[in-house]
Design goal:
Shape: extended
Number of domains: 2
Strand content: 25-35%
Number of strands: 16
Distance between the termini: 52 Å
Radius of gyration: 27 Å
Helix content: 25-40%
Length: about 325
């Protein structure tokens, strides 16, 4: 990191990190393209994230601007292997000292591409123009970025929701309340869990959008350990109005509804267990009760097992050879 332009880039990244509650540590030795480490902790001092950064500074890195992204090239096999197999999540940061544009991209086997449609010797990565280094959106993305294998990532995802599973297992109530803007393709809406553990009721919000995906498809992916059913009390007024429309006749003289079809309880049993309340065709509102499915029950058992000391947990099999 000898020249002035490169030093300016590292200093800028360090300054932005200090303003956004990240600890920035420059690496004095250039080890295959890692210029700094960046760490984030919570208020209790627990580590939330640790990242490795490759920082490139200068106007020349922005010359291949494709409108939505900038192409970063000159990645060799050694760098590719190092970044994609590193135990730390790695990112590249491009800084333009002319206008202080500072953007980043993950360095993974998915983002790094081989030149010439896969037939070339080098590699490149597309760095999105709108992925601004350490703005609010990027902070959220970086805190969830991991280089762990998929099975560990998925296990940690389930582990993050273990307390909800355990509360249900112990007799508590967990409800999913969501509002989907049905006439928009942006996926905008509101999603939250209302958790009653028997002593207190706590709300947990999920500040995410789910573009081009129906919320009825989102829920099982967001909470794969749960089965869903409607909150009968919450839906009663809406269900009754629908039942009257389809199964009743209004007698104006007696000012009452006369049942001409199936009874309300029978009608209600035929309704979709994951249904919404329609608000003027603009918003679909859900209030669903979560229960443990087979995955949820199994996860609690497995987590209990792996969380306790086990004899012989350090043993490993040998291929052939004598017994020891």
């Amino acid at each position: 990191m000898a020249n002035t332009t490169e030093r300016i880039g590292v200093s800028y990244c360090s300054l932005i990190a200090s303003k956004t509650e990240w600890m920035f540590r420059e690496q004095p030795i250039d080890d295959i393209g890692i210029d700094a480490h960046m760490e984030r902790t919570d208020k209790d001092g627990k580590v939330q994230q640790l990242l490795a950064l490759q920082i490139k500074s200068g106007e020349s890195y922005f010359k291949e601007n494709k409108g939505e992204y900038v192409v970063f090239r000159d990645i060799d096999d050694r760098q590719y292997n190092y970044w994609t197999t590193n135990t730390l999540p790695c990112i590249v940061v491009l800084y333009n000292p002319k206008d202080d544009m500072c953007i980043w991209q993950k360095l993974t086997a998915e983002t790094i591409q081989k030149t010439r449609g896969g037939d070339g010797k080098g590699y490149y990565v597309n760095v999105p123009i709108d992925q601004v280094y350490l703005d609010d959106k990027s902070n959220e993305l970086l805190l969830t970025f991991t280089n762990l294998p998929e099975h560990m990532t998925n296990y940690n995802f389930l582990l993050s929701q273990k307390k909800f599973m355990q509360i249900i297992k112990d007799g508590g109530i967990v409800k999913l309340h969501s509002e989907e803007w049905v006439n928009k393709c942006s996926g905008k809406g509101k999603t939250e869990l209302i958790v009653d553990d028997g002593n207190t009721i706590t709300t947990y919000s999920y500040p995410y959008w789910f573009p081009y995906t129906l919320y009825t498809d989102v829920f099982p992916r967001l909470f794969p350990w749960a089965d869903f059913s409607v909150d009968e009390d919450y839906y009663e007024e809406n269900d009754e109005a629908l039942w009257r429309e389809l199964n009743c006749h209004y007698d104006k003289e007696d000012d009452e509804w006369i049942e001409v079809g199936e009874p309300f309880e029978v009608f209600r049993e035929s309704l979709d267990p994951i249904r919404y309340i329609d608000h003027a065709g603009e918003v679909a509102e859900y209030m669903l009760v979560l229960s443990l499915n087979e995955l949820g029950e199994s996860f609690l058992k497995i987590d209990k097992y792996v969380s306790q000391p086990r004899p012989y947990s350090c043993t490993r099999p040998n291929v052939g050879g004598d017994l020891k």
